[in-house]
From TrEMBL:
InterPro entries: Ser/Thr_deHydtase_PyrdxlP-BS, Thr_synth_N, Thr_synth_N_sf, Thr_synthase-like, Threonine_Synthase, TrpB-like_PALP, TrpB-like_PALP_sf. This is Threonine synthase. It holds the Pfam family PALP. GO terms for biological process: threonine biosynthetic process. It comes from Stakelama tenebrarum. It is an enzyme of class 4 (lyase).
Amino acid sequence: MRYQSTRGAAPTLGFRDVTLTGLAADGGLYVPESWPAFSTDDIAALRGLSYVETAIRVMAPFVGEDLTEEELRALCTRAYGRFAHAAVTPLVQLDERNWLLELFHGPTLAFKDVALQLLGRFFEKFLTGTDTHLTIVGATSGDTGSAAIDAVAGRTGVDIFMLHPKGRVSDVQRRQMTTVLAPNVHNIAIEGSFDDAQALVKAMFNDPAFSARFRLSAVNSINWARLMAQVVYYFYAAVRLGAPERKVAFSVPTGNFGDVFAGYVAAKMGLPVEKLIVATNVNDILHRALSSGDYSTGTVTPTAAPSMDIQVSSNFERLLFDLAGRDGNAMAGQMRGFESSRAMRLTNAQREGAAALFASDRVEPGHMNEAMRWAASEAGNVIDPHTAIGLAAARRVDLDPAVPVVTLATAHPAKFPDAVERATGSRAPLPGRVGDLFERQERYDVLPGTYAAVTEYIAERAVPKA
């Protein structure tokens, strides 16, 4: 398996190098040169397998010869052994048609753990026995940061610098990052939005002088290995609901398009996906792009679902590239235009290709709260605001009533206690394994959201290339 950049100018790489690199040298994102194909027999053979064994079957074509099956099994066993539920990502039925796929049973109570617990072990595996030191630079709207920090804290050969927008993540999200006091963990609260933080990270990767000094790597969903790990739970859920004989729809609350792109990959591999519902909040660039072809940024509006308060969805580039004939030069030109004007129209091929598989919905705060109340009162299930946005969209989008709809439950409701209480009248307690979170010491630095301030901070603390 080889990987190519969406912008066509970076070298093709194998799985190991793609994992350690993150963003492509030409500013693009890596994707496989071709999608692995699973037959109906291959999918049927996943029935009854554990999550770890499902992961091995689904990911094996992507890792190629860089990991043996035994090595991949050992890494997955260690990664998913830290989850609080034996099924890792259990399905929960809400009514005759709607299901939740609970992705929050990992150590930091969010879906990011499913990929990042594994990614941390990939890093460790690929760095062992080398003199390479990784400098991980990431931006987070809340959950990526804590999951990535948990995955690499204390590991040799790695430093992590995580940027989050000051005051725009929940107290639980912030504390899950800033109470990890390992010497290789550096938390930075920037004065600005998540989009500002994400732009700073991309600028560091694209700065030849800065990237030449350090071996930079990424944990955001720009890293292909992270998306690959998320493909697994689409197969795991669909098989339990009747695939390959039965189609399944998925509703995905998303801002950066990574989680739902993993569903697209599963469909390209042969999973019978009826529809992927892209559920956004009022920061609705993805809904506008998919419904009218308008991919233009606006002002980020802070909401009770902060992980979705995004106007630039990095992974959308991967979809546009695949839908438009995988022309790297054309994609580079399209993205240069967007980066200069902050506006872009999807081509006819991109719009028509997306319409075949995707639906979308913009969920207002009132509908989000209504979905939280419905889940609590009618289904006895307390959900967080992001999951509620997915559920609201799942219940509104017009689909064949015979098709089950799985909403991805992306975070534990205790991560957003104020929003849950406002909607339902009760607070969701933190699970016992993180129950002392508010008693732990915090450590982080506040910086202006400028390139000079952030790169100077990192340069003073990072380990240069040998």
